[in-house]
Write a structure and sequence with these properties.
The protein is mostly helical. It has six helices and two strands; from the N terminus they run βααααααβ. 58% of the residues lie in helices and 5% in strands.
Length: 118
């Protein structure tokens, strides 16, 4: 049996760079300037955008933040941010996806697994 995987993976580094650009364009840091959180608000939004783009659960988003943002953000904190500031995350996602679409960047995962029996 032959198993061939053709998986297009996310380019997380590129996605995070574009996300920084989008957050700067939106004036994100000025929105949360007066708020005091344990970490910068930008970090929480990055983790939630990674969660949404990768179609991950909160538990998996915790490990994504550890891997790609070098900070472990607990799933309870991510849940709080989803509930409390979900509208901001949706706005950031819309802007990010609009920009990626304009750039003709394919941000989805394609899994074309083929099994042949000889």
């Amino acid at each position: 049996m032959l198993c061939r995987w053709d998986v297009k993976a996310y380019d997380i580094g590129f996605l995070l760079a574009i996300l920084d650009y989008v957050l700067d364009l939106m004036g994100f840091d000025s929105r949360f300037e007066g708020c005091r959180f344990g970490r910068p608000a930008r970090l929480y939004v990055k983790a939630l955008v990674l969660k949404e783009v990768c179609k991950a659960s909160l538990r998996h988003a915790e490990s994504l933040s550890k891997t790609y943002l070098a900070v472990r953000i607990p799933k309870s904190t991510l849940h709080y941010w989803e509930v409390k500031h979900g509208d901001v995350v949706v706005e950031v996602l819309k802007t990010l996806l609009r920009l990626l679409t304009l750039m003709d960047y394919d941000y989805s995962v394609v899994d074309s697994t083929k099994f042949t029996i000889d």
